[in-house]
Design a protein that fits this description.
The chain has 92 residues and is mainly α. It has a domain of 64 residues: 434 Repressor (Amino-terminal Domain), CATH 1.10.260.40. It is 46% helix and 0% strand. The chain has 5 helices and no strands. The radius of gyration is 13 Å and the shape is globular. The mean pLDDT is 93.
Amino acid sequence: MGRSLRQRPVHLAGKLRKIRDSFGLSQNGIIARLGLIDEIYQDYISAYERDIREPPLPILLRYARLAGVCVDVLIDDKIELPSKLPARPKHR
């Protein structure tokens, strides 16, 4: 049985960058705001935003909570981020 690559969201990197920019944060600033100072480094954020690396699910959850959106908004290419962040998630 062969192993194929799993699908990756096409717009995830741009959405993560938009979240950081909407809060006016540097890459180190987003790390602090996400509460990940001792867990990830600036080059991780850079790789996420350049679509070189995909963030783990717990980090995506933190981005979603910061932005006030559901995680599916980040990973579903058919859903755009709200123009104003933080937003109000529909599930609350």
